[in-house]
Amino acid sequence: MTVIQARDVSLTFQTADGPVHALKDVSLTIERGDFVSFIGPSGCGKTTFLRAIAALETPTAGKLEVADMTPDQARRQRAYGYVFQAPGLYPWRTIAGNISLPLEIMGFARADRLQRIARVLDLVDLAGFGGKYPWQLSGGMQQRASIARALAFDADILLMDEPFGALDEIVRDRLNEALLDLWKKTGKTIGFVTHSIPEAVYLSTKIVVMSPRPGRITRVIDSPLPRDRPLEIRDTPEFIALAQQVRDGLREGHSYD
Amino acid sequence: MTEATASPGSTVLGRGLGRALPILTVLLAIIAIWYLAAIWMNATWVRDQAVRADTVLTTGDLIRQTLTLERPVLPAPHQVAAGLWEGIAGQKITSKRSLVWHGWVTLSATLAGFAIGTAAGVLLAVGIVHNRAMDQSVMPWAVASQTVPILAIAPMVIVVFASMGVTGLLPKAMIAAWLSFFPVLVGMVKGLRTPDAMQLDLMHSWNASRVQQFWRLRLPSSLPYLFASLKVAIAAALVGTIVGELPAGATSGLGARLLSGSYYGQTVQIWAALFAAAILAAVLVMLIGALERLTLRRMGLAR
Ligand SMILES: Nc1ncnc2c1ncn2[C@@H]1O[C@H](COP(=O)(O)OP(=O)(O)OP(=O)(O)O)[C@@H](O)[C@H]1O
Ligand SMILES: [Mg+2]
């Protein structure tokens, strides 16, 4: 079942230095349960596309549908959990309080809230840290807490913009594993922006390669890898071949200009 | 946290002294300069007196006399201190000569004006942040209100209120509010606008209403700014109240005390009232500072 459908989506920012074509004629179909990674050089419109899906930006041309609705209708139905590069936790709320925030806004009953908080804390491996304040946690733990916050209200679509960009490789590996695990458990549709080829290949069922000026999709690669992926899969020939395809796609985009 | 890095073996006392030493040095310097100024400014009068009485003054006599005049041009620090002590501890606090009584009159109007001004500033700021029309129209008027000299406005306010039969605390509180709403307004507008784009986007993606966004994000984020402007506002409220006590007819409050002192050339009384006002202001600002530290630390917003 198609969850996100983009047809010839363009998005132009009007700036003081003239128009910036952040997206040009982008077409993409994302099925329910897909894990889609967006990869490409800086400024190719990855963030812009993710924000357009979440109704944080409005396309200037083309058609973007989310579950047969406009992105804004989907937003009103709380279809999105959005994770930014920075955790963005409130310093004056505990971890549990932070996760509770969207639940309070959405009007969940207290008992339900507590139960959901416990469940998502468990999911991101932070059980027992609900009473701590953000500054008492490491950067990786804070980012996991922000993922828990995005998961708590059971949005169908999880959008993540370089969520692990600021973390070191070891923590990143662990979080990647945890994210795959979570995705398998919940069956959510995930849109994931990254700069790392191995990360994109390891996580995704679909890898979208983009290139800049104007921002467009140069290649969409469907991954043949199985859904069960131990970290060791990164040493298999299939994985390496796939990474090579992504690299070629990125190079192609560059030779364009 | 930072004190903890002080050299090992330094005692609490040592650390306290280390912090107090610069302040004490400056204080001593000020007192020394003050004494010199008092001698210099009062000397003319003392010499005139000596010439008139046909006596010859030694330097020691001169200095002694300049520092013990009944109505000096500039009273010496110890005279002011004595006057202050006399006014605070030497009177029944219900007496018209008690600085405690006058201080209370001023303080009550200051607090009332501060409360009114803070409420007005916060409400206007909320309006400005949430309403485009208010955003463009209120600020110029608020700025204009502060450019009107308060000394010119105060007597009119007092007279207008008096003509309606309202005297005492309220007119003075209105003048205090007039001065104190402005810093709160400016600080709150800035504070309510601090949440960054990411936090507002998150709220948007959760489909939060503007009311939810206000209570859960904007208001808590604005508190550091609110406290900073409250400190300015309480001092401004005190100034406003004292100015409100200056117009003729006022008989109570530190402002009235200042004015009657100047009528009768009681310079010691003027300076004592002045210091009482300064001490009051310092205490009020410190109280808000303590409240600020307590709140922000509990909210995890302290540095
Ligand atoms: N709000 C905005 N106003 C004007 N231009 C913008 C705005 N947001 C993005 N752009 C421009 O649109 C283009 C695409 O930006 P976008 O943030 O989507 O890139 P990105 O692929 O996410 O890059 P990065 O990998 O560095 O995060 C860039 O040229 C950027 O300057
Ligand atoms: Mg980006």
From TrEMBL, chain A:
PROSITE patterns according to UniProt: ABC_TRANSPORTER_1 (PS00211), ABC_TRANSPORTER_2 (PS50893)
SUPFAM superfamilies (UniProt xref): P-loop containing nucleoside triphosphate hydrolases
Keywords assigned: ATP-binding, Nucleotide-binding, Transport
Protein source organism: Paracoccus aerius
Protein name: ABC transporter ATP-binding protein
Domain ABC transporter: 4-233
Gene3D superfamilies per the UniProt record, alphabetical: P-loop containing nucleotide triphosphate hydrolases
Molecular function (Gene Ontology), one example: ATP binding
InterPro entries: AAA+_ATPase, ABC_transporter-like_ATP-bd, ABC_transporter-like_CS, ABC_transporter_ATP-bind, P-loop_NTPase
From TrEMBL, chain B:
Species name: Paracoccus aerius
Topology with respect to the bilayer: Multi-pass membrane protein
Location(s) in or outside the cell: Cell membrane
Domain spans labelled ABC transmembrane type-1: 103-292
Family: Belongs to the binding-protein-dependent transport system permease family.
Transmembrane intervals: 20-41, 104-129, 141-163, 169-189, 225-248, 268-291
Entry keyword Transmembrane: yes
Name this protein carries in UniProt: ABC transporter permease
Name of one Pfam family that matches: BPD_transp_1
Lineage top rank: taxon: Bacteria
Keywords: Cell membrane, Membrane, Transmembrane, Transmembrane helix, Transport
InterPro entries attached to this UniProt entry: MetI-like, MetI-like_sf
